[in-house]
Structures are given as C-alpha cells and as structure tokens.
C-alpha cells in the first residue's frame, strides 16, 4: 500500500462553526451595541457640560438632533423606531417647556400634535452635529472606519434591524 506524501493530501473542508460560537458572538455584539449607546449618551452629556449647558439630557439632545428640520408628530417619531411612546411624549413635553421645540395641533386631526425645532432647538442640533462631525473626522483619520468599511458595518446592522422588526411583527 502506498502512502501519500503530505504534499498530496487533500485539504479538509472546515466545518461550520458550532452554533454556540455564533450565539456567543451575537451576544457579544449586543453587549457592544449597548455599551456604545451608553457611551454615546456620555459623549453628548460631556459636550453639553463643556459648553455650559445643563438644561438638556443627552436623550433630549439626541431627540432634537434626530428631529432636525422635519415637522412631525410624536407618533411619526415612534413609528420611525427612534423612541418608545412614553419616552418621546415626556421628552417632547419637556423640550416644549424649555423652548427648544414648537408644537401645534394638526388642522386635519386635532388629536395629533406636530412638532418642529425652534431657533434654540436648531442651535442645539448644530452643537450635536458638530460633535458628530468631529468624531467622524477623528475616526476617519485613525482608520477605524476602514476595516471593515463602516458602510459594510451599517449594512449588517440594517439587516439585524430588519430581522428584529420582522420578529416583532411575527409576535403580534
């Protein structure tokens, strides 16, 4: 019987990773995502403290940023998936009281309230936009956004988002 030399052996195909490895990697991703969100809130908080603005919470500042130039209802903010119902209602009420958001009843549906930023709200949005621009520039210069490309990472997260949304629809 002839023996094959090691150079002639056929390489074995790698088996797929065990499911537990995938589950652990998925759970690690969730933990990283959660930590990133908390760090984002801390970064916004630190920026506003640096600017001497203590009247807004980081969540409120992000709500202002995400509202942007739009005029929407609280329900539209919820349906975009940005905020929970009671959370957005409470924060919008506070932002109106603080003068960052203007609100008025819709002509067609008097139950609905449309909101948009005031001049003070636009200034807050600009502060957050400048913070994000500085971060993006620093990350870009450091190469962090290159491997894997941030666009590929975003595509992956959109797929996870779509999967989660389908899971929620399936439940109800």
Distance between the termini: 65 Å
**Strand/helix succession:** HHEHHEEHH
Radius of gyration: 23 Å
Spatial order of strands in the largest sheet: 1-3-2
In round numbers, the mean pLDDT is 86
The total of helices stands at 6
- Indicate the overall shape: globular
Structural class assignment? mainly alpha
**DSSP E strands, number:** 3
Any idea what the CATH architecture is? Orthogonal Bundle
CATH structural fold name:
Arc Repressor Mutant, subunit A
What's the CATH superfamily, by name?
Winged helix-like DNA-binding domain superfamily/Winged helix DNA-binding domain
Low-confidence residue ranges: none
Q: What is the CATH class?
A: Mainly Alpha
Number of domains: 1
What would your notes on this structure say?
- GO terms for molecular function: DNA binding; DNA-binding transcription factor activity.
- Residues 26-162 form the HTH marR-type domain.
- Pfam families: MarR_2.
- This is Transcriptional regulator, MarR family.
- Residues 1-22 are annotated as: Disordered.
- There is one protein chain.
- The chain is mostly helical and 172 residues long.
- It has a single domain (30-167), classed as Arc Repressor Mutant, subunit A (Orthogonal Bundle), CATH 1.10.10.
- The chain is built from six helices and three strands; from the N terminus they run ααβααββαα.
- The protein has helices at 19-50, 58-67, 74-79, 85-98, 119-142, 150-171, and strands at residues 72-73, 101-105, 113-117.
- A three-stranded antiparallel β-sheet has the order 1-3-2.
- β2 and β3 form a beta hairpin.
- α1 (19-50) packs across α2 and α2 crosses α5 (119-142).
- The longest helix is centred in the N-terminal third of the chain and has 32 residues, at 19-50.
- It is globular.
- The mean pLDDT is 86.
């Amino acid at each position: 019987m002839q023996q094959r030399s090691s150079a002639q052996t056929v390489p074995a195909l790698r088996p797929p990773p065990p499911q537990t490895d995938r589950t652990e990697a998925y759970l690690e991703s969730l933990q990283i995502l959660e930590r990133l969100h908390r760090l984002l809130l801390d970064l916004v908080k630190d920026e506003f403290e640096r600017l001497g603005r203590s009247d807004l919470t980081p969540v409120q500042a992000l709500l202002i940023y995400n509202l942007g130039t739009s005029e929407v209802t609280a329900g539209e903010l919820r349906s975009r998936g940005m905020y929970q119902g009671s959370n957005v209602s409470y924060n919008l009420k506070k932002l109106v009281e603080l003068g960052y958001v203007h609100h008025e009843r819709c002509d067609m549906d008097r139950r609905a309230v449309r909101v948009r930023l005031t001049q003070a709200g636009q200034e807050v949005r600009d502060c957050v936009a400048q913070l994000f621009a500085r971060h993006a520039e620093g990350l870009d210069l450091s190469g962090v956004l290159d491997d894997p490309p941030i666009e590929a990472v975003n595509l992956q997260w959109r797929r996870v988002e779509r999967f989660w949304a389908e899971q929620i629809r399936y439940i109800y």
